[in-house]
Write a structure and sequence with these properties.
heterodimer; A: mainly alpha; Arc Repressor Mutant, subunit A; three-stranded antiparallel β-sheet; 3 strands; 68% helix; B: alpha/beta; Rossmann fold; six-stranded mixed β-sheet; 34% helix; 25% strand; globular; ATP-binding (chain B); ABC_transporter-like_ATP-bd (chain B); ABC transporter ATP-binding protein (chain B)
């Protein structure tokens, strides 16, 4: 999963401090794997260098200065591009897809469209495997079947998530 | 706009059943020899779309052209003749006549169009051989397995040399292995006969036998060919 894109997506709803970003990330996506502060700050400095975020303000406190980050136009375009491009179908994609769906809902993009495009990408790979199976020997068939069943599991998840988009939109925007 | 070279094209289809909207501005197109999967959740309108395309159900609005002819402009008799000679059908189950043997079932569409019994059954047996079920030719549907019965149904759908085969969840009642074999045989036979296949399915592994897919959701269709 792209932490950079996820943090950028979270910034779309308004500027945040690094600490707030980490908290929002952990709350929404980091259930079993919270971000380290170091990851947040190294990611933000990379995004800053690439012009995808800018420093919106600096607060001086007792400790180190706290920077508030805002997403730039280039950053918004970058998030949009990431959300619109399907993931390469491979096992255990769910956390990236889940992140994309939630971010699409949070930023007012079409999550149904994202899921449709991902389904098409999965089916494209399933067609290639089916064709290989058709022409191959038994070993080919067994290897392809294993991959096909995994892709099918992803697709079932995509279908179920599509059916639950309304419910999910309410939950993430609550 | 109608895609060039399409054999069967539908545009702006609408269909309601009482308060329920089954199709809402749905479209579709298929070329000769192409297999197109129609996917979508239960109740999305995919079976209604298939029934409209096959001339079984008349849409409330929209147009369907088969080989340049508009279905709604035909009489019932013309549409029935079209279904008998140009279209083939495969459903999930319950489609074979239980009193007839398998070879008689496959020969039935030919008999209905006036082919003599001997000739019809000879051609039917040829199709049963292609579908690898000629050994059940003399048995009745109740005496064969689900997978064999579905291969008999595939043979029957192709026996008249149709230009379009409509398959509604053709493997829905079969286990994985039998379902895959039926899909392989169906798509290979249809491709070699240059027949188009409209394949309604909610199973991705079945849809993977198609050349492309359209998705139906809430009565609207989306062609995914250029989506990625």
């Amino acid at each position: 999963m792209s932490i950079g894109h996820t943090l950028l997506g979270l910034l779309e709803s308004g500027p945040r401090h690094g600490y707030d970003l980490k908290r929002a990330f952990d709350e929404k996506f980091g259930h079993d794997k919270p971000l380290h502060y170091g990851q947040v700050y190294s990611t933000m400095s990379r995004l800053l260098k690439n012009g995808l975020v800018e420093v919106d303000g600096i607060e001086a406190g007792d400790g180190p200065e706290r920077k508030r980050y805002a997403i730039t136009e280039a950053g918004i375009t970058d998030v949009g591009r990431w959300l619109a491009s399907p993931e390469k179908p491979e096992p255990y994609l769910t956390s990236t897809l889940y992140t994309k769906v939630v971010l699409a809902l949070l930023t007012g993009r079409d999550a149904g469209d994202l899921l449709d495009v991902q389904r098409a990408e999965h089916l494209r790979m399933m067609r290639a495997l089916t064709e290989r199976k058709r022409k191959g020997d038994l070993a080919d068939q067994l290897i392809c079947d294993h991959a096909l069943f995994h892709l099918e599991a992803d697709l079932r998840w995509l279908e179920l998530t599509t059916a639950r988009l309304g419910q999910l939109a309410k939950a993430v925007n609550a | 706009m109608i895609p060039a070279g399409s054999l069967l094209v539908a545009e702006g289809l609408r269909k309601t059943y009482g308060p329920t909207t089954a199709l809402d501005d749905a479209g579709f197109s298929i070329h000769a020899g192409e297999t197109v999967a129609v996917m979508g959740p239960s109740g999305s309108g995919k079976s209604t779309l298939l029934h409209c395309l096959a001339g079984i159900v008349t849409p409330d609005a929209g147009t369907i052209h088969f080989d340049g002819r508009e279905l709604s402009a035909m009489s019932d008799a013309e549409r029935s003749a079209l279904r008998r000679s140009e279209f083939g059908f495969i459903f999930q189950f319950g489609q074979l006549v239980p009193e007839l043997t398998c070879v008689e079932n496959v020969a039935l569409p030919l008999r209905l169009t006036g082919t003599k019994r001997k000739d019809a059954e000879r051609r039917a047996l040829g199709w049963l051989e292609r579908l690898e079920v000629d050994d059940v030719a003399a048995k009745r549907p109740g005496e064969v397995s689900g997978g064999q019965g579905q291969r008999v149904a595939v043979a029957r759908s192709l026996v008249t040399g149709p230009r379009v085969v409509f398959a509604d969840e053709p493997t829905g009642a079969l286990d994985s292995l039998n379902g895959e074999r039926v899909m392989q045989l169906l798509t290979e036979a249809a491709r070699s006969a240059n027949a188009a296949v409209v394949l309604v399915t909610h199973e991705a592994r079945v849809a993977a036998y198609s050349d492309r897919e359209i998705v139906v959701r809430d009565g609207r269709s989306r062609d995914m060919e250029h989506a990625v």
